[in-house]
Design goal:
InterPro entries: GH, GH13_cat_dom, O16G_dom_2. It holds the Pfam family Alpha-amylase. It comes from Streptomyces piniterrae. This protein is an alpha/beta fold. Among the domains are: 55 residues, Oligo-1,6-glucosidase, Domain 2 (Oligo-1,6-glucosidase, domain 2); 63 residues, Golgi alpha-mannosidase II (Immunoglobulin-like, Sandwich), CATH 2.60.40.1180. It is built from 15 helices and 21 strands. The strands form 5 sheets. An 8-stranded parallel beta sheet has the order 11-10-9-5-2-1-13-12. Strands 14-15-16-21-18 form a 5-stranded antiparallel beta sheet. The two termini are 21 Å apart. A hairpin with a 3-residue loop joins strand 15 and strand 16.
Length: 546
């Protein structure tokens, strides 16, 4: 009997970083035409929906997260008409569409901010943003000690003497969510796109938006070695309780439309309990589980994270979501191929350290995929992870485009290494990312060896990462034990995770250094590596029919 639960409780959602997915017009940058051309691939892969990173009109200071017009598509990617055609075509393939929404800030080219600059201090136009006088006798010091996520102060001074807040790049001024115009505007933006058929939104920096009204300095950190942007229960600009009032209003807008429209929050919270507050019944539907993504390849740590996530999200009736990589972090084969040397903390620009064993990292990534896709709830797949793409760690400095590179004084290469255009076919760049008659090279250079990782090269190879993902996603959709629900842990020795999903499926992951003899079972449904003589090799996972 088909499930009557909302689709988002168990969906596998594929993240499309639009610049790097598929280039339809040959200019070296991915676009809507490219996405449309690859919809058959996504349907065959077995995903339920796609999340598309920002496609709105933008000067591209932060690759689209600086939005100049939320109701228009940037010409680099296409047009509103093309977006509507994509939504309609995706729906015919049985794939839902979830664009990004960026409510914490706009572009400095947005009509509102341009009006604020033109009208000057004290004007109503400036009240939609966070403008303040500086400190010190001549106001030459920033209003407080807040720091930009991209490095340096979170304030920029204008020629008229006032400062404006930007928790990201200077080209991304923060909105003032205390102003009624801001809430009204975003409710109208949501209706604009819901009316064009989108199935939900991924909310960028969902834990931001609301700032302490007095804009105090950052509180002292309990751990002086922790990064300055780590969250706290009473942080002046992250995860403030008032943000939930905004999302209650958004939920009402989503409920105006048929078809289980939904939101997923990019919310970095200080604890699982704080995260659960975003997905209460009258709030958002789901939230990214960054705690899972930040956990090392360690059995006790993973079990603790899984238990905490299920318990805290379950306490408010929300499903868990699981994610291994995205456009902001080092790809997980390159993380798992190194020994962890320290705790990865929220809001930290994570950089793995030490020598890379990519063969080990890839083996662990295969096992992690089966672990993630067997857990209760939904899952996110970042484009290229189904190909086993590693982080590109040797991009030439002249190719780096992430604003973190400049804002850090060329000390942090930023996130470009996980954003390199993915390979589709052929023996040399652009590997089918762009058409044969392309006039522009890919916006980031692709490694010479990526022909072996292309969709074309992996298709039909039963040992490839791509075929593992295809089999896992189709089994996940067809098997009644997988998707939303609960799990029961099975007895297992140290270093082994084993749990049961009803009816009649077990997932076993061997994170130890020794082979593990599998429990009694009737069949091996899928394994991330060879299962010989009933023994599961280290860094290998298996789905068993019980």
């Amino acid at each position: 009997m088909p499930s009557t639960a909302p689709w988002w409780r168990s969906a596998v959602i594929y993240q499309v970083y639009i610049r790097s997915f598929a280039d339809g017009n040959g200019d070296g940058v991915g676009d809507i035409a490219g996405i449309r051309s690859r919809l058959p691939y996504l349907k065959a892969l077995g995903v339920d929906a796609i999340w598309i990173n920002p496609w709105y009109k933008s000067p591209m200071a932060d690759h689209g997260y600086d939005v100049a017009d939320f109701r228009d598509i940037d010409p680099l990617f296409g047009s509103v008409a093309e977006a509507e055609a994509l939504i309609d075509e995706a729906h015919r393939h049985g794939i839902r569409v979830i664009p990004d929404i960026v409510p914490n800030h706009t572009s400095d080219q947005h009509v509102w901010f341009q009006a604020a600059l033109a009208t000057g201090p004290g004007s109503p136009e400036r009240e939609r943003y966070v403008f303040r006088a500086g400190r010190g006798p001549d106001g030459a010091e920033p209003p407080n000690d807040w720091q930009s996520c991209f490095g340096g102060p979170a304030w920029t001074r204008l020629p008229d003497g006032q400062w404006y807040l930007h928790l990201f790049a200077p080209e991304q001024p923060d909105l003032n969510w205390e102003h009624p115009d801001v809430l009204a505007e975003f409710k109208d933006i949501l209706r604009f796109w819901f009316g064009r058929g989108v199935d939900g939104f991924r909310i960028d920096v969902a834990h931001g938006l609301v700032k302490h009204p007095e804009l105090p300095d950052l509180p002292p950190r309990k751990d002086p070695s922790a990064p300055p942007l780590a969250g706290s229960i009473d942080h002046p600009h992250w995860d403030r309780d008032e943000v939930h009032e905004i999302y209650r209003e958004w939920r009402k807008v989503a409920d105006e439309f048929p078809g289980d429209r939904s939101f997923v929050a990019e919310a970095w919270a200080d604890s699982p309990e704080r995260l659960a507050a975003y997905v209460r019944p009258d709030g958002l539907h789901t939230a990214f589980n960054f705690e899972f993504m930040m956990t090392s390849w360690d059995a006790p740590a993973l079990r603790e994270t899984i238990d905490g996530s299920l318990a805290n999200l379950g306490s408010v009736g929300a499903p868990a979501t699981w994610v291994l990589s995205n456009h902001d972090v080092v790809r997980h084969p390159s993380r798992f191929g190194r020994e962890p040397v320290r705790k990865w903390l929220p809001n930290e620009p994570y950089r793995p350290e030490g020598p890379l064993d990519l063969e080990l990292g890839t083996r662990r990534a295969r096992a992690a995929a089966l672990l993630m896709l067997a857990l209760p709830g939904g899952a996110y797949v970042y484009q290229g992870e189904e190909l086993g793409l590693p982080e590109v760690e040797d991009l030439p400095e002249e190719a780096l485009q992430d604003p973190i590179w400049e804002r850090s004084g060329h000390t942090d290469p930023g996130r470009d290494g996980c954003r390199v255009p993915i390979p589709w076919s052929g023996q040399r760049a652009p590997y089918g990312f762009s058409p044969d008659d392309a006039t522009g090279a890919p916006w980031l250079p692709q490694p010479a060896g990526w022909h072996a990782l292309s969709v074309e090269a992996q298709t039909g190879d039963e040992n490839s990462m791509l075929e593992l993902y295809r089999r896992a996603l189709h089994l996940r959709r067809d098997h009644p034990a997988l998707g939303d629900g609960s799990l029961t842990w099975l007895d297992a020795p140290a270093g082994v995770l084993a749990f049961r999903r009803e009816p009649g499926l077990a997932c076993v992951v061997n994170l130890s250094a020794e082979p593990y003899r599998l429990p009694e079972h009737t069949a091996v449904l899928l394994a991330s590596g060879p299962v010989e003589d009933g023994r599961l090799a280290p860094d290998t996972a298996v789905w068993l029919e019980l």
